[in-house]
Every structure is written in C-alpha cells, then in structure tokens.
Trimeric intracellular cation channel family protein (Salinimonas profundi), 609 residues
Amino acid sequence: MESWIHVLNLAGVAVCAISGTLMAFQKRMDGFGVVVLASATAVGGGTLRDMMLDLPVFWIEDTDYLYVTCIAALITIIWLRLTSLFPYHYLLVADAFGLALFNVVGIEKALGTGAGMAVAIAMGTITGVFGGLLRDVICREVPLVLSGELYAITCIVGGGAYALFYTLQLPDIWCVVAALVTTVCLRLGAMRWHWELPVFRTE
Amino acid sequence: MESWIHVLNLAGVAVCAISGTLMAFQKRMDGFGVVVLASATAVGGGTLRDMMLDLPVFWIEDTDYLYVTCIAALITIIWLRLTSLFPYHYLLVADAFGLALFNVVGIEKALGTGAGMAVAIAMGTITGVFGGLLRDVICREVPLVLSGELYAITCIVGGGAYALFYTLQLPDIWCVVAALVTTVCLRLGAMRWHWELPVFRTE
Amino acid sequence: MESWIHVLNLAGVAVCAISGTLMAFQKRMDGFGVVVLASATAVGGGTLRDMMLDLPVFWIEDTDYLYVTCIAALITIIWLRLTSLFPYHYLLVADAFGLALFNVVGIEKALGTGAGMAVAIAMGTITGVFGGLLRDVICREVPLVLSGELYAITCIVGGGAYALFYTLQLPDIWCVVAALVTTVCLRLGAMRWHWELPVFRTE
C-alpha cells in the first residue's frame, strides 16, 4: 500500500512537471523559467501542505521527487525540440489522475497527524490544486482553477466520499479508492461535458 | 481575555471571508474561485505567521475557523443572489476592526514565542495584511495595500503603540486596547480624509 | 568564518532591500508598498528556505536583518528624494555578489540539517532567487528570473562547483569560495555578454 502510493505520487509529480514545462513553452520562457515552472507545479502543493502540517517537506526527505521532476522536464523539452505536436488531450486525462492522487495523499497525510476531517479535506484540495495555482500566478494567467470547469471542487467532493466511507468505518483502502474514483470521474466528466458550478447570478 | 480574543478573531476571519467572496463576485469567478479567494483572504495572514513562528497553524488546531469561513462565504453568496446591493461602506468599517484585531493577535502570538518587539510588530502587520495581498495577487489586481491610502502603516503604528505601553510595563490589556484603538482610528481616518504617505517626490 | 558569513549575509539583505525599494520607486508606489517590496525581496528567499528546512526563520532569531532592511530602504528613499540619478549599474554588480552569497548560505544551511546535495543546491537557488521572484509577482512584472539572461542557472552551476569540491573532500572554505567565484563570474559574464540558455527551438 505504502510503496504503491509512493509510485503513484511520483507519477503525479511527473505529470505536473510536464504541465509546467508546457506552460513555459507556450510563454516562450527559457532556461530557468522551465526549471521554476516545472518544480513549482510539481511540488508546490505538497510543500505547502507539509509546511502547514509541520511535517518534513516530502522532496527534502526523499530526493527521488527532485530527480523525477528534472527528468520529466528534460524529456518534455527534448520532445518539444523534435516535434511541435504534443498530446495535450492525454496530458489532461493524466492530470485528472494526478489531481485525484495528490488529493488522497494530502488527506492521508493530514489524518496521520491527527487532524480532523474538515482539515484533511482542505489539505487534499491544497495538495491537488496549489501547484497549478502557483504556475498560473507566476505566468500572470488568470488561474485555471478559479474559473470555468469544475476542477478543485472535484477534490472537495472526492474528499467528501473519503469522509463518508471513513465514517462508515470501512477499511482504509476502500476510502482511498472511493476518493480516487469520485475525483477522477467528476474531473473527466467536467472536461467532457463542460460541467460548471455557477454560484453567482449572471444577467 | 483568551476567549474574548478568540471570538473577535473569528469575527475578523468572517469579515475577510466576506471581502474575498465580494472580490470573486466582482471578477465574475465561480465555484472554486469563491472558495479559494474567501479562504486565502481569511486565513492567509495567520497561516504565514504560524508557519514562520513554527507554531501549529491556527485553523488546523481549531476547525471553527474553517467553518466560519465557509458560512460567511455562503451567506454572502446567498445575499448577492437575492440582491445586487451590498453595504460596501459598512464592510470597510468592519474591515478596519478586523485589521486591528489581526494585528493584535499577531503581536501577542509572536511575543508568546519569546520573539523581540520588532519581530512582533512585523508579525502583527503580516497577519493583518497578507490575506488581502494574496487575494489581490491571485486576482491580478495591483494590491490595495501597496498604494494610496494608509493601510498597513496603521498596523505598524498600532504595533508601535503596543510597544510603547509594553515598555512602560502597563498591564497586557492596556497594550491590547492601545494597539486596537490606534489602528482602528488611523484606518478610519485614512478612509474618511484620504490620508496618504508619499515617500517619493512626484514631479 | 561564521561571523564573516553573517556580515556578507547582511550585505546581501541590504542590496536586495535597495533593489525592492527601487522597484517601488519605478512603480510609483508609496508608504507601505516600499516596506513590503523591500522586505519581500530582502528576506523572502531565506524565509521560504528556513520554513522548508524547519529551521527557525533567520530574521526572527536575529533582529539585525530587519533593521538592516529598514535602514537600506530608508537610505535609498532619501537618496531618491535628493537626486533622481541612481547608479543602477553598480547595483547590478552588487546584486550578483548578493545572489552568490545567498546561494552559499542556502547550501550550507541545508547541508547542516543533513539534507542531500541535490536538495542543498535547490535550497541555495531558492534562497538566491525567490526574493526577486516575489518582488516581480507582487508588481505584476514578468519575473526577471524567468526569461532572458542567465540568472538562477548561475546559482545551480555555482552549487555544482560546491558539490564537486565537496565530493573531492576539500576543506569547507574551498567549497564556499568555488561556489562564490563560479556564481559571480557567470552572472557578471551573462550581464556583460548577454549569455542566454535557449531550451526551446524558436522559428
């Protein structure tokens, strides 16, 4: 279970590093811009989570995450030098899985420190979306998570599914699967059918 | 004293959550944009303070703050759906009280860890203004605290009043009241008479 | 050695505070804008480093840094009121030295906590460039570190020089000097001959 989450966490970091590198490519950044955007997107959310929970920051404890970030960015750069085509669609699907996994990792880590369920759901959401928020703020984009399609709300609903199964005292693995499936399905559905959540009345 | 500060702190969080929600409304954000802006404005300053002082983050220890943030955002959303009128003026007055209280909470928390007075004043100011700064950076506004009317300077002067009374060895409650009154009066005066603090010569 | 690094660290903080104040002057900010930009640029990188390494934040432990920041900002303000001429060129040279020193301080602090070399290089780079990144994001500029001339890459190469000498088990002072010289020379060279590091193919 532990090592299985570790591998999926590394996969999530790699996907986010690729998405940061693509943003740097779109913005015609060079050199360090790529390094900053790839790392901020990949480890930003988990870093903030660990600092707030007063845990050791995950990529300081385990250097694998730094290497994966660098390798993912490097492969993306080489790919983009060879061809200007990039399978953006598959990246969005992979990103949905990364979001769901970061969400679960955040919830589990928060519960492990003895935090309450409301805090755990907040931590899951922060882990999932803060990296992308940072990427967009640095690039002076209107953050994607702040407008349009369901994005971070899927983390909150996924956290709600975790909380439900947790309250029913089902085994830990069921809670994890419930949160993963809920988050991924909601996110893919939102991408496919452009689900939105209008809270203000528009004239 | 302790519980009295707790209640006022909750009030400050609620006021900031409302101001974040209003900004999301103005920017035509939806769904998660409201959640991000309301929470960042409400708990951003205190979170940074607690992380820098290496204290447990206040809303992780006490979930009340998360619930108050959500309820304040929800009531604001319902209000804005019912009517497009909003008493912005009263909000600014309430915001001045919230600023003063966050300032005092930051100073007290910093002094409680054994920090010096200069650090305590910096912590009070950070607690008071960082949430609003975050809100404006996320929305790509020129941060309000960075230009025009006295805003954060009122925190520094309020902290100076605290330091003066503290040095005179007056009881703790007097220091708190001095800082609150100084900050609120300066801020209300700055709003009423548009006080500014020009540091550069303009041609 | 210890006190020698302390003095150079104070010098780095002063240079960054001056650069933040100059940015506030260019943006026609007033009052608190100057305070925010000067402090964020001067202590932002070190604060993030200390929070991630779970060390006491350096300016909370040693108030000297706060005073140096305020005095450097004040002198810059007085200078700019007396004359609109400012030796920007010398500031850039001083900034290269500040960058190199922040880099070395970050590496040494990270190694002191038992972190690996990859993490130490990342910490050196973060200490060197995060303050300037923060300054540019707050001012809604495209961060300078993200485009054009070599800037943060010089920190990474300087960290590589440190790592090389460290692996050869040379005395600590040699590692420090190697990192300082490499970073300063690369940065001055990049400024003089406009070295760039294009990673994406441009049409």
Remarks:
- Residues 2-193 of chain B form one domain.
- The longest helix of chain B spans residues 2-26.
- Chain B has a mean pLDDT of 82.
